[in-house]
Design a protein that fits this description.
heterodimer, A: alpha+beta, six-stranded mixed beta sheet, B: 293 residues, mainly alpha, 15 helices
């Protein structure tokens, strides 16, 4: 079952939550809607579920137009951010709810609920109340409940948002394995790009009610479409400068920029990820800039070095491998040279 | 140690003030509540239980007033139950123009004198009232009859259930109801399977309180009843009439039944308050705990 969202717009009063958004989710895909808070990602998810109605535009499940269909008739599984478990019902009855309101037979309910509780590894907790469960267990009850009526589509709103880091990590991998087993078309909302990249087949980045970029995690990471995307993904240093005649000039740093061969000078922003900056002790002929080591954080798989560049008046972050760190013998206060291995330049007009 | 004592002294009042305040509160309570309450029962039983029984069930008019109250109050409670749930649902779940106005209007019966309510009903349904000629033409009696008693009682106790439920439903939130809808539940199923179990203790609390007020209502009922003994006298009206006739044991016997109702209400109310608080605490815990855990 594929999902198509076509030119959906939604406003709350004067606030435009979604501005002409279109989206395709291929059947069996696990897609992440990624964006900062207020970007419209949850609104889009709720419109797909039918919990919110679009001002204009339409939603299709395969070829079926469900724009006007009520949430209860769409047969979607929805996992809420704070789970919204029925607190007066046991774990068993929570999972059974969707089957009971659809008048499944008693035997059918029993069989299906046991099967799901086994799937989410909560056997033995059938009679427990939601208040007795840990956050991770509640999350899995919410998931089992959403899956009970064999939904055509599974939608999850910040499924790991309310969990601590370690449980979150476990549940991410578990959700991915579960999806590989069930192959139900799924969409989840998150503001954490690592989570989106780790779990999803495809990622859609949203900002201010629009889609900034859609693609596989690799496509987005390797070829960010615009300054917002690269900035949102983080771990990046920003330089301001100009482009002219096929070159980008950033302070005393000059790099090739063949996309802009024109003579007129235009303001531009350049992004260099922390792992794309190389630290050298002496100037090596390649474009490089001078900086002073301010802080070293070696408590990571890579050593994070913060340096200050006087020419740009900014603090930059550089990732140094442990091997290289051993060779360089960096000390706070050292003067070093940074040379970018890759620079992404965006002409300012394209920026937000 | 020394710092600790200083801090404690700064935070709490001197023991003398504390004792004086507690004593004053207890004295006022005793003088205005406990003593009269005990006195009602003492007066009612002054001539022994046999006379007490005779006063309650031997007098046809008194017996009728008890029956009438038992017929009026439940109907008023059911009306307010339906209205209360509808109003609380509308206010807690929807944002609509006039919502603040509706919230204020619900409290109106509490802020207006019951006698005014009674007069207002007479103005509407009395013989000289707006609907009077029409009602007479169709042979419908409201004022000085059973329907008038029900309407007056229901109007005066209107806010009780709604005021109890609205904050409860707002605190519980709509999340579970939305989840039920997403799982395929229809409106009635959502109410019966999710909303009702969540608010049941608050609802019962409202019903008990509403019932107590309905049975004890005097002012509005006094105006619309017409004081026809054996026909439109409810228990509070009967108490007043017996009192006016200098039948003290009779008046106190009926009053003792109303006082007993108050005591039972108080006990049930306390138990339900405890349960409602627990429900709210649990709701809060379920909503926030996940974030901290």
């Amino acid at each position: 079952m594929s999902i198509s969202v076509k030119r959906v717009t939604k406003s709350f009063g004067t606030f435009v939550a979604l501005n002409d958004v279109s989206l395709e989710v291929p059947p069996g895909d696990l897609l992440a809607l990624l964006g900062p808070s207020g970007s419209g990602k949850t609104t889009l998810l709720r419109i797909i579920a039918g919990l919110e109605t679009a001002d204009s535009g339409s939603v299709f499940y395969s070829d079926e137009d469900v724009t006007g269909a009520a949430a209860r008739d769409r047969n979607v599984g929805f996992v809420f951010q704070h789970y919204a478990l029925f607190r007066h019902l046991s774990v068993f009855e929570n999972v059974a709810f969707g089957l009971r309101v659809r008048r499944h037979s008693r035997a059918d309910v029993n069989r299906r609920v046991r099967e799901l509780l086994r799937l989410v590894q909560l056997e033995g907790l059938e009679q427990a109340n939601p208040s007795q469960l840990s956050g991770g267990q509640r999350q899995r009850v919410a998931l089992a409940r959403a899956l009970a009526a064999e939904p055509k589509v599974l939608l999850l709103d910040e499924p790991f948002g309310a969990l601590d880091a370690k449980v979150r990590q476990e549940l991410r991998q578990w959700l991915r394995r579960l999806h590989d087993e069930l192959h139900v078309t799924s969409v989840f909302v998150t503001h954490d790009h690592e989570e989106a990249f780790e779990v999803a087949d495809r990622v859609v980045i949203m900002n201010a009610g629009r889609i900034e970029q859609a693609g596989t995690p690799e496509e987005i990471f390797e070829r960010p479409a615009n300054p917002f995307v690269i900035d949102f993904l983080g771990n990046v240093n920003v330089f301001h400068g100009h482009v002219q005649n096929g070159h980008a000039r950033l302070g005393n740093l000059e790099v090739d920029y063949p996309d802009y061969p024109h003579e007129e000078s235009r303001a531009a922003t350049a992004f260099v990820r922390s792992h794309e900056l190389e630290i050298v002790r002496t100037k090596n002929g390649r474009p490089s800039l001078e900086a002073k080591v301010m802080h070293i954080n070696p408590a990571r798989p890579v050593v994070k070095v913060r340096v200050y560049s006087e020419a740009f008046g900014v603090v930059l972050t550089v990732d140094v491998s442990w091997e290289r760190y051993g060779e360089l013998r960096l000390q706070v206060g050292d003067t070093v040279w940074l040379s970018p291995k890759q620079i992404r330049v965006f002409i300012q007009d394209h920026a937000i | 140690m020394a710092e600790n004592t200083v801090a404690r002294r700064a935070q709490s009042d001197p023991p003398l003030v504390k004792a004086a305040l507690i004593l004053a509160a207890v004295a006022i309570m005793g003088f205005f509540v406990i003593v009269p309450l005990v006195n009602v029962f003492a007066q009612a039983f002054a001539s022994g239980p046999r006379v007490y029984w005779q006063n309650l069930f031997g007098d046809a008019d008194t017996l009728h007033s008890i029956k009438l109250t038992l017929m009026v109050a439940p109907v008023a409670v059911v009306l307010n139950l339906v209205f209360g749930i509808a109003a609380a649902w509308a206010i807690a779940r929807f944002r609509f123009p006039g919502r603040a106005f509706l919230t204020a209007m619900i409290d109106l019966p509490f802020s207006v004198s019951p006698v005014v309510v009674g007069l207002f009903l007479v103005l509407l349904f009395g013989l000289q009232g707006y609907f009077g000629p029409w009602l007479r033409a169709h042979d419908v009696k409201i004022i000085f009859a059973y329907p008038g008693l029900v309407i007056a009682t229901a109007f005066v106790t209107f806010p009780v259930v709604a005021r109890e439920l609205t904050p409860l439903m707002e605190a519980i939130g709509a999340d579970e109801e939305v989840a039920a809808v997403s799982l395929g539940a229809r409106g009635w199923q959502v109410f019966r399977l999710i909303t009702l179990p969540n608010i049941k203790w608050g609802l019962l609390y409202g019903v008990i309180l509403c019932n107590a007020r309905a049975m004890g209502e005097f002012g509005a009922v006094a105006v619309v009843s017409g004081h026809i003994a054996g026909k439109t006298d409810t228990m509070p009206l009967r108490v007043e009439k017996l009192f006016q006739e200098y039948n003290m044991p009779g008046a106190f016997a009926v009053a003792s039944v109303l006082a007993m109702l108050a005591l039972v209400t108080l006990a049930v109310k306390t138990a339900l308050e405890w349960k409602t608080r627990r429900d709210l605490a649990e709701a809060e815990q379920l909503q926030t705990e996940g974030v901290e855990a």
